[in-house]
Design a protein that fits this description.
By secondary structure, the chain is mostly helical. It has helices spanning 2-28, 37-42, 50-54, 58-67, 86-97, and strands spanning 69-70, 76-78. Helices cover 59% and strands 5% of the residues.
Length: 101
């Protein structure tokens, strides 16, 4: 029984990494530092920085992934990650938290 649960957890972690690479890494970078051309252009935050991590809640991160982010003028800063279930989004939030050094 415990083995099945552990396998489900690792599949979830692998899925989160795959979803990160598919939906997020283009701007946020594979390492979460945001040092990509697009990330630098958009001023993406460095998720390895503990202060950046303290600057948002899991709920805010979940909402940003699910609904996207807009600036005060309504310009899209980040598109919503299309086609992800709530559980996949929660796994992505957990994945982002692991970038913190």
């Amino acid at each position: 029984m415990a083995l099945g649960f552990a396998a489900a957890l690792s599949a979830s972690a692998a899925d989160a990494k795959e979803n990160w690479e598919k939906h997020c890494a283009k701007c946020h970078g594979a390492d979460g530092k945001g040092q990509t051309k697009m990330g630098q252009k958009l001023g993406v935050k460095d998720y390895t920085d503990p202060k950046v991590q303290e600057g948002f809640t899991d709920e805010q991160a979940f909402k940003a992934i699910k609904e996207g982010l807009k600036d005060k003028e309504g310009k899209t800063l980040m598109k919503a990650a299309e086609g992800l279930s709530d559980d996949e989004i929660k796994a992505l939030v957990k994945f982002v938290r692991e970038f913190k050094k």
